[in-house]
Design goal:
single chain; alpha+beta; 1 helix; three-stranded mixed sheet
């Protein structure tokens, strides 16, 4: 008996069952729906919010995500509310909520401009010196 060690190559067309075809169609539909959702999310109205913060050496979080630097303005989706959190070393933190409200021109965020001045953290500054004699 001889064994052929070469691979058998055939040009058979693969036949799919109706169950496999239905699964492929459902996956294609789900992908199309996801694509439409992503495109519509990108088309959501945006609004430029002016930011002014004292001191400038703070970290700003927008919806729990830190910004890499302190910008003069940020573009946010106007169709939903946002939370801005300002945190600086040696300063009390502050939070600002931007509410989305319907207007004649469509959704808009209020307040439109954000100006935050962080207060210093009060520390006990009593100096105590003990000297041994």
């Amino acid at each position: 008996m001889r064994v052929n060690l070469r691979r058998c190559v055939s040009n058979h067309r693969r036949h799919y069952t109706s169950r496999q075809t239905a699964l492929v169609n459902a996956s294609a539909r789900a992908g199309a729906i996801l694509l439409v959702i992503l495109i519509c999310g990108a088309c959501a109205p945006k609004q430029k919010i002016q930011l002014d913060c004292v001191p400038k050496e703070v970290t700003i979080y927008v919806d729990k995500e830190p910004l890499p630097d302190v910008p003069d303005s940020i573009d946010l989706r106007a169709d939903r509310s946002h939370i801005l959190f300002f945190k600086g070393s040696g300063y009390k933190s502050a939070m600002v909520v931007l509410d989305s409200e319907e207007s004649a021109d469509g959704p808009a965020l209020f307040p439109r401009d954000v100006c935050v001045e962080l207060d210093l953290v009060e520390r006990d500054r009593d100096l105590r010196i003990e000297v041994e004699r």
